Amino acid sequence: MKYTPVLQPATLLKRYKRFLADLALNDGTEFTAHCANTGKMTGCAEPGFNAFYSTSDNSKRKYPHSLELTQNILSQLICVNTAVANKVVEEAINNQVITELNGYEQLQSEVKYGSENSRIDFLLTSDNKPACYVEVKSVTLLSETDPHSGQGYFPDAQTVRGQKHIRELIEMIEQGHRAVLLFAVLHQGINTVSAASHIDKKYSDLLNQAIKKGVEVYAYKASISPSEVTLSEKVAFK
C-alpha cells in the first residue's frame, strides 16, 4: 500500500480522546490530527516520538491530517492507523504473498457471518474447496519488559470483541469451513507474536481452544516506510 503523496514528518506531542493526536512541525507549528486507533497504543505514542502524517483533500473533514506512523526511541517505525491492516492484507492475498491463502478465486470483505452477528474481514471462496474465513488483527504491542526481544503481543487491552471473533471462527470450523486468524505485524521491532495472556487471559484461552479445534493462526510482518506499507514476510506465532 503506497502513500500518495509520501507522508510528512512531525513530532508527536500527545495522543488523547482515543481519536486525536497533537503534532508539531520543525518550525514549531502545532496542529491536531485524527488518530484512527481505538487501542491503548502502548509503547506506540509516547510524547516526543517522531511521527508521520497524511493530509486529506476532503474539505469537509474537521481534522484534515491523520497520524499514520510513529517511530519509537529504538528508531522502529510503527503503523498506528489500524485501518491499514486490512488494506495490506488484501493486497498481500491478491499478490499471493500469504501462501497459506493462495488458490481461491473470489475475495469478499466485510461479509456477515456467525451466530453473534459479526462481519468477517475476508471471505475466500472457490468452487472446489471449503470457504475460508479470515479474521485480521493488527499487532503493534512490543514487549515492555524487553523491547529488544522482538516479542509482540495481541491484544494490548482486554477485548470482548476479539473474544467474540474467536468464537465465530470456531463456529465456522464446526460448520465444515476453513477459519484463519491472521496477525498483521505493523511494528518494525516485532519478530514473534504471542497471545497476551498477561493482558487478556480469556482471549488467550479461547485462542488455544480455537487452535485445537482447527483454526489456523499465521503472522505476517509489514515493511514500513513513509512511502509504503507492505506485508513482506512470515514471522513465528507461538
Fold and architecture overview:
With 238 residues, this protein is of the alpha+beta class. It has 3 helices and 15 strands. The strands form 2 sheets. A 9-stranded mixed beta sheet has the order 7-8-9-12-14-15-13-11-10. It has a 6-stranded antiparallel beta sheet with strand order 3-2-1-4-5-6, with no helix packed on it. Strand 7 and strand 8 (118-126) form a beta hairpin. Helix 2 runs parallel beside helix 3. The longest helix has 15 residues, at 160-174. It is globular.
Keywords:
238 residues, alpha+beta, 15 strands, globular, DNA/RNA nuclease SfsA
Write the layout of secondary structure elements.
Blueprint: E1 8-16, E2 20-24, E3 30-34, E4 50-55, E5 65-71, E6 77-79, H1 83-94, E7 106-113, E8 118-126, E9 129-139, E10 141-142, E11 151-154, H2 160-174, E12 178-185, E13 192-195, H3 201-213, E14 216-225, E15 228-237
Organism: Pseudoalteromonas undina
Protein name: DNA/RNA nuclease SfsA
Concise description?
This protein is of the alpha+beta class and 238 residues long. 17% of the residues lie in helices and 42% in strands. Strands 7-8-9-12-14-15-13-11-10 form a 9-stranded mixed beta sheet. Strands 3-2-1-4-5-6 form a 6-stranded antiparallel beta sheet, with no helix packed on it.
Question: How many alpha or pi helices?
Answer: 3
Could you state the order of secondary-structure elements as H and E?
A: EEEEEEHEEEEEHEEHEE
Strand count, sense and barrel status of the largest sheet are:
9 strands, mixed
Q: What structural class do you assign from the helix and strand content? A: alpha+beta
